[in-house]
Model the fold of this input.
Amino acid sequence: MTDAAYSSWGRLPGHEGPARVLRPAQRADARPEARDVSWLAYGCGRSYGDVPRNDGGGLIDTAALDRFIAFDAGTGVIECEPGVQLGDILRLGVPAGWFLPVTPGTQFVTIAGALANDVHGKNHHVAGTFGAHVAAFDLWRSDVGEIHCRADNAHRDLFAATIGGLGLTGLITRVQLRLKRIPGPFMDVETIRFETLADFFALSANSADSHEYTVAWVDCSARGNRLGRGWFMRANHLSGLAQPRQRPRGPGPSVFATPPFSLVNRATLGPLNSLYFHRRARRRDRAASHYQPYFYPLDAVRHWNRVYGPRGFYQYQCVVPPGDAPAVIAELLERIAAAGQGSFLSVLKIFGDIPSPGLLSFPRPGATLALDFPNRGAETTQLLDALDSVVRAADGAVYPAKDARMAPEAFRQFFPRWPQFADQIDPAFSSTFWRRIAGEHA
Amino acid sequence: MSNIVIIGATSAIAERAARRFAERGDALYLVARRADKLAPIAEDLKVRGASQAGTHTMDADDLDAHGAMLDAAVDALGVIDQVLVAYGTLPDQQACEADPASAVAAWHTNAVSPIALVTAIANRLEAQGHGLIAVIGSVAGDRGRASNYVYGSAKAGLAAFLDGLRHRLADTDIDILTIKPGLVDTPMTAEIDKGPLFADAERVGRDIVTAMDKRRAEIYTPGFWRLIMAIIRMVPRPVFHRTKL
Ligand SMILES: Cc1cc2nc3c(=O)[nH]c(=O)nc-3n(C[C@H](O)[C@H](O)[C@H](O)COP(=O)(O)OP(=O)(O)OC[C@H]3O[C@@H](n4cnc5c(N)ncnc54)[C@H](O)[C@@H]3O)c2cc1C
Ligand SMILES: NC(=O)c1ccc[n+]([C@@H]2O[C@H](COP(=O)([O-])OP(=O)(O)OC[C@H]3O[C@@H](n4cnc5c(N)ncnc54)[C@H](OP(=O)(O)O)[C@@H]3O)[C@@H](O)[C@H]2O)c1
Done:
């Protein structure tokens, strides 16, 4: 019933797990001394694949390093330890009128984990990535000890390598983040149904200037003239005067046990998607929503990842350049639907052109598609390899935070600055992901 | 808003309780033996909303230091409304069996020191006319068991002391709370393999704050330990001796 400790969100089976785990109670103790194993920091394990894993090596569990250091309610600059979760920052910031500058679709991630994957949110087109709002951080390295890295001057190389650096450049021990002003906790959310991919691209273009947050859900089981149908969601923070007085709901349900097989399968995939597509009678809807259900709908169901059963699942997220995006996304969706794979949680979004600060940052201009695939063994990995080929031909990229299987050659093409990055890796740090990707260079 | 003194403020359990106090704006005075460990905790509690988070360094084993600490707490807070006594050590049972000095040291930290401290605090609160003293004991005090009876007996002595003190103060406005955690995943239990009976410090901290708010006399946290310990106390000795508890 309980999941193996220190697994990742995709719950793919067959991992050896870490040989050693450090659980420092304070940041001064977060210094792995042993050199007979490699080390890697572990946040909440909300990455889907092997990025937060160090099988046979050592993990530094940062859960207890979750203290705030300073918060200036005038400027919105917050400083904290690496294991502080985004939800904790919101609990402190929102009542004072401050919000995360960028947030992923779950608040159960650590600030250092968000930094190390340079995560993005529904406001990428106006805010860029998480790392773009990081003012500074402290990094502990096995070779030089603790150093202070800033966006503007000190250790600029290590700053760029650590943002999106997958935990390989050392242990982040402190982060300084700039929050953004909001008028209150509520959102003004508009939901619009679209029937074709062309409509999605048009809606995205039309909403880019008017809406801070845009994202779409697509029906990945639809083919032919229904291909690319879905719901477009765009939102802004609701202005101060319009804020309702409703209180947010308490904790929601939990998937207590892992079912013996995936509840998302060939029999349920089509109906689930169709049901969702037809969930509302109105093609267009506008409502006020508290930020919690708007940004974190999945957080309401704890351990939702267990619905995929004991074999776990893959998530696949890619980005393709803007020029060919409509055709390439159509091809990806067609292949997924034809294979009868995919799942219910398929997301499409247009990234803007704000440069990402990290050497290995994933976000870049274009259209990004993210979806889950229940693990059906070779059948699934073959489909994902085929998707990789389409993405490579289009000169796109696949997101390491979600990955558990891309080929080393694919990674090197997607992240051409990897040799510069490799120079900055801490000699005592490694990960299962990095050994898989870099092979003999690891 | 209350004025709360926490002694053993670097304990993982105490820190979780302290965060709840801070979030509602309580004024805190934090006492621990390591200043370097205490400073980041005090900083955090201030950011979370504590209206004050003064600190004081004291080794609780040094009984002569208790008075000066209480004077300093009164200087910082004015009135002390509540006290949470959280420090403790989990001694190596084998070492305590082999070496009487180890057993005595474990008793000193887990029984003698808190008894001395709580006596002094109770007298001050009595003079002031109101207050609450919450002390972390342990389920281990409910029955002596081969695996940790030195620690358990110290917690048992402390619990009986608190029972008596509560009796003594029954018609005053001073409340005494005995907190009996079960197994909690904290640095104290770092060496022990974690099974399903382990609770996290967050849960236990929350239970402590609720019990203090409700002015309870005794709690088990998580609550199911009350039943487990009732059963363990009832097991007849011949059967008990065949177990490895
Ligand atoms: C429901 C859900 C929705 C999501 N939505 C999005 C989304 O919209 N956008 C997006 O970008 N991502 C999204 N993600 C992915 C998630 O945001 C990232 O994987 C995030 O980085 C996870 O953070 P974590 O704290 O769990 O880190 P982990 O997964 O534990 O670790 C991630 C990386 O950070 C490193 N790391 C952690 N702590 C430190 C430290 N102290 N020092 C150095 N390195 C460290 C680890 O070594 C590892 O390489 C989503 C995930 C889920 C489960
Ligand atoms: N964890 C469990 O399973 C469990 C179960 C039942 C009861 N308890 C009780 O819960 C309380 C808190 O423990 P915890 O689990 O939170 O463990 P913890 O994090 O290890 O806390 C123990 C605390 O006691 C302090 N301490 C020990 N000796 C001291 C001394 N001589 N002077 C001052 N402080 C001293 C320690 O200070 P340093 O930080 O300086 O070391 C530490 O802050 C203890 O009373 C313990 O007996 C724990």
